[in-house]
Amino acid sequence: MTTLLADGTRLAAPEKWLARYVLALLALVQAGLGFGALFLPADPHADMAGMPGMAGMTHPAQPSFAGVSWNLALGAGLLVVALYPRLAGLWLPVYCGLTVVLGVASVSDLVRGLPVTGRIATHVLSVVGVALLLVVYRRRKPRAGREPRPAAALRRR
């Protein structure tokens, strides 16, 4: 009975699993950033330097829920792709777009001379996530019954 059930199955090569494991680890780190900002106490003496009109103001006791939700959503999306690699094609454009927005904001902050080294260090995780998403996307198995067509067949249409 077992041979009948496992006849057409085989384990994926370790190279395919490695990228998914690293992607899952990155997802947990990304979500950890969100949970950390949500549950750890904020420093009441932190200065919001560089924010227009915010000079001298301290960080509010309530955490920045935009950053929390951003990190939790990105972590959840990466974890879903690590578990279901066929969804990498759907999540890749969204994640690339969000990473481009982060990159533009980071370059803008750097050009203005704002102290953003900690934030840029967390944005590097997004760039690594894009690279891992590309690897998972390129290594996924095509769906059953859908054979990739050669490029010559596509040009004849």
Describe this structure as you would to a colleague.
The chain is mainly alpha-helical and 157 residues long. The protein has one domain. It contains six helices and no strands. Helix 2 packs antiparallel against helix 3. The protein is globular.
Compact summary:
The protein is mainly α. It is 64% helix and 0% strand.
Task: Please describe the topology of this protein.
Blueprint: H1 2-5, H2 14-39, H3 65-83, H4 88-111, H5 117-139, H6 151-155
Helix pairs in contact: 2-3, 2-5, 4-5
Transmembrane segments: 21-42, 62-83, 90-108, 120-137
Organism: Amycolatopsis iheyensis
Protein name: DUF4383 domain-containing protein
Query: Spans of 5+ residues with little confidence (pLDDT < 50)?
Result: 4-9, 45-63
Please provide the count of β strands: 0
Report the structural category: mainly alpha
Question: Taking all residues together, what is the mean pLDDT?
Answer: 74
Distance between the termini: 46 Å
Alpha carbon gyration radius: 21 Å
Strand content: under 5%
Number of contiguous helices: 6
Counting structural domains, the number is: 1
Q: How many strands, which pairing sense, and closed or not: the largest β-sheet? A: none
Order of helices and strands: HHHHHH
- The general outline is globular
Provide the helix percentage. Answer: 55-70%
